[in-house]
Predict the structure.
Amino acid sequence: PAAGWVGLVGLGLVFAAAALSPLAGYPIGADVDPAARSAGPSAAHWLGTDHLGRDVFWRLVLASRAFVGPGAVTCAVAGAVGVPLGAVAGWHEGPASTAIRAALGAVAAVPAVVLVLLGCARFGAGPRELALFAGLAAVPSVAEAVRARIERLRREDFVDAARAHGLSDLRILVVHLVLFACGRAIARKLLEAFAGFVVLEAALSYLGAGFGLPEPQPSWGNMMAFEWGRDLSWALLAPAAALWATVWATVQAARWFAEVDGG
């Protein structure tokens, strides 16, 4: 579907912006210009300036770094923990599967935001801790998607045929079931985890109170908080629109993986 491809391209642009934006040399922390405060869009400032005279466009682009790297860590944690647990729970019956499902259910019973806030309150609220606990909160969803599919497929004829051709159970599980049978489902769940992290990071940066990126480091959340209550301007609308567009693109990409996967 076209929306899925648009979403994938949009995500690619966001990742490219996060990777390349530091090359522009924009002086974060030394960009205050009282003479240009609250200016409208112009050739010098494509999206205008905020009430301190800082360039909205460049801060918007640089703010993508607040969630792209940590969001990738979130996906890595969710995949590295959730996929093996789901694979083991789906392949084996008995106490091991029961214990894994019980542990995953206990984690899933705690709302993701609460789990992240509790973890950050105990171990720190930096981007690394935020990414780690957001990834752990996404583990049950990833693991359940893998478990359900492997449990359904492990008794199929092609598994018996693979064994008859001398393939080990480990190879059947890892290559044929996890990589090929579950690959798109895993990608979909990881994209959903990334979208959740984008919203979470923006919300915590907006709220402040020690969570998220503090000023003057730009985040779409703290950019909106910094301008909230003032005139409706691009300094407020641009980060809100960028947040919506990024989440929309991620959701569309996840839906594309769901459709090509058959549901």
